[in-house]
Amino acid sequence: MSGLGWMIVAAGAAVAVLATPAVPERAPRPPGRPAPGWKGPLLAAGPSAAAIAAVLAATGSAAAAAAAGASAAVGAAAASTALMSRRAASAAEAMAKLAVVLVNQTTVAASSPEAIGRAGRLVPGPAGEAARRMAEDCKTVGVAAAAARFGQRVGHPSGAWLGDILVVSASTGARWGDAMGVLEQETAAAAVTARHFHSEVASKMGMLVATVAVGAGVIALTAVAVPDVGVWLLRSPQGSAALLGASVLAGLLAARPLLGARARLKEL
Question: Confidence band (pLDDT; 50, 70, 90) for 60?
Answer without folding.
Answer: low
